[in-house]
Amino acid sequence: MSDVNSQRRNFLKTSLGAAAVAIAPGMLLFQVAQGKSDGADAKVRWGMLIDTAQCKPGCNDCVTACNKENGLSGGIAVTDSQWIRKIDLKDISTGREISLPMMCQHCENPPCVDVCPTAASFKRPDGIVLVDKHRCIGCRYCMMACPYKARSFVHEPIHDQNPDVPRGKGTVESCTFCVHRLDEGTQPACAEACPNKAILFGNLNDPESEISKKIHSVASIQIRADLQLNTGVHYQGL
Amino acid sequence: MPTLASLHFKNRIYYVLLAVAGLVATAGMFAVHMMEEHGHIISGMNNQIVWGMPHVFAIFLIVAASGVLNVASIGSVFGKAIYKARAPLASLLSLAMLAGGLTVLMLDLGRPDRIIVAATNYNVTSVFAWNVILYSGMFSLVILYLWTMMERRMNPWNKAAGLAVFVWRFVLTTGTGLIFAFLTARQAYGSALLPPMFIVLSFAWGLAVFHVVQSNIYSWNEKVLNPDILKRQKNLLGIFIIGSMYMVATYHMTNLYFSHQTGFEHFILRDGGVYTNLFWWGYVLVGNILPLVLIYFPGLGKMKCVMFASLLVVLGAFSLLYVFIIGGQAYPLNIFPGFTVSSTFGDGQIGSYIPSKYEIMLGFGGLAIAFIITTVSVRVLNFMPQDKPYISD
Ligand code: SF4
Ligand code: SF4
């Protein structure tokens, strides 16, 4: 009998230990996530206006430029990262065909950021949505939440990285608006590479910027505007 | 009365079973090691199907872990003696399945080594992060509850602990449902029906697991479950099965009602190949109809039938989760309503997914962990239901 009792006591001791371990994450709950300013300017909101009338079907120059700039393999297997892709559309009722580039839309209210358990997905003050490679645990919840399928998961170890664009196996990544180039004062690689100037990049908050003026003068839409995410990327001619 | 020889024989079987489970768990750890080494490329998951087989196992275990506590709640909260006698076993099963499920969920992460990051960087808007709290809280509460049952001095607290567990488990299953309900952009998810659906499913799945374990414990100890108790428990299982079928049907019917969802419903219910088959044959037939027949058909409904019915319910659960989680992602996102689309990234196409052996090993590893925790505890401590000589309520 006393044997059973001591067994029981031992069991309870172990259980309490396990409970303490299980509770620990909860205790740390209120640790405030460190703010990230990154020197980004809160008065700026970076965005794009993509003119589908200028985008040629079959042209892939923006995609190639992105892959080169960010050190992506360019592979199109289901497990390869694609930060930007060309989508060919056909209007079901009119038969009209359109081709356009699709990438992270840098939502103002990004679902990926809302769902990320570790706050690895975050929005910079200038509206760019990024993933902190060192904080991402690779749960892929953000990929489930993104309405535009803009994110890729790194399925394999990575070699020959571009030092400006750190990437890591087991984490999620997506278009950064070439934030490393912006900080140097240049345009995203895709916008620069487009031979037809179909991608206009600029500051949506500056009424004098070319992109702001154009958005005011031409008809443009945000994709899945019904979700009210206020995307930074706008499309014209859709 | 068991003879000495039969006891020796049983002892041997016990250790063989434990060794087999240990092997399965080790295989699971090996799979984790391989995925760490090579990346998720060796799994069947990809950029379209981002959650795969491990999530089917993990979510089953977690949902069933919450549901099995129903047995305890009926005892503690509603004071039914036959369930009260089963509360310790139910709690143990809950802990075991929670441990197994969470292990699978954690080890499938792209960076399982960063689990501390997950614990220390907390995003309050993330349902996933809420669930971390819910799961760890549940774990602790159930242990506390078990303590109030097993330690006589703690008995006075039993009712309070039982109530806390009862409430917490509702919140927990709601949280699990919310993980999907918040994915508003996806046709398969983003429905307010999901949390209640998961709660009702958890009742059926949890009770089914309970029945399987209970039958085995009884036959291992060469005991027969009192037929009155069996009758009450199998009727309860029947009601839960009908209830969960009703919830799943409602979920699909409401989707059919919204015209933008009909494409998805036709995919799951009619044209989805493996998903359609799993839904109708796996979930509806094997997981619901057959168990109901086994429970209610005149002449059936004996201990063996109920145990077999429970096993089928578990199989049905896996089928439904496969359809829900993987089928739900396979159907393409509707980014451009009114257009047909194509791209190099699977836009407009049904996603392809074939689970790899590593994922399956990891999933079974989680089951093995739950099995080991249960068998060892049942042997070391007394979890055999102690029924009173008569049933008072
Ligand atoms: S497009 Fe997707 S990844 Fe980009 S900010 Fe919006 S939700 Fe996040
Ligand atoms: S995969 Fe990484 S970035 Fe995405 S939700 Fe999980 S932790 Fe956040």
Describe the fold and architecture.
- The complex is a heterodimer of chains A (238) and B (393).
- Chain A is α+β, with helices and mostly antiparallel strands and 238 residues long.
- Helices cover 26% and strands 18% of the residues of chain A.
- Chain A is built from seven helices and ten strands.
- In chain A, the strands form four sheets. Chain A has a four-stranded mixed β-sheet. Chain A has a two-stranded antiparallel sheet with strand order 2-3.
- In chain A, a hairpin with a 5-residue loop joins strand 4 and strand 5 (129-131).
- Chain A is globular and about 45 Å long.
- Mean pLDDT of chain A is 87; it is low at 11-37.
- Chain B has 393 residues and is mostly helical.
- Chain B has a single domain, classed as Formate dehydrogenase/DMSO reductase domain (Formate dehydrogenase/DMSO reductase fold, Up-down Bundle), CATH 1.20.1630.10.
- Chain B contains 13 helices and one strand.
- Chain B has helices at residues 4-38, 53-76, 81-84, 87-107, 115-120, 127-150, 158-181, 194-220, 227-257, 262-271, 274-296, 303-330, 357-380; one strand at residues 339-343.
- Classes of the chains: A alpha+beta (238), B mainly alpha (393).
- Chains A and B meet through helix 1, strand 2, helix 3, helix 4 and strand 6 of A and helix 5, helix 6 and strand 1 of B.
- One iron/sulfur cluster (SF4) is lined by residues 104-107, 110-112, 129, 146, 148, 150-151, 174 of chain A.
With strands numbered from the N-terminus, the spatial order across the biggest sheet of chain A is 8-1-10-9
CATH topology grouping of chain B: Formate dehydrogenase/DMSO reductase fold
CATH class categorisation of chain B: Mainly Alpha
Helicity of chain B, in percent? over 70%
Considering residues with a beta carbon less than 8 A from a beta carbon on another chain, report the largest interface and each chain's count.
Answer: A-B, 73 and 67 residues
- How big is the Rg of chain B? 22 Å
Bound molecules: iron/sulfur cluster
Mean pLDDT figure of chain A: 87
Helix-strand makeup class of chain A: alpha+beta
CATH architecture of chain B: Up-down Bundle
Main CATH class of the largest domain in chain A: Alpha Beta
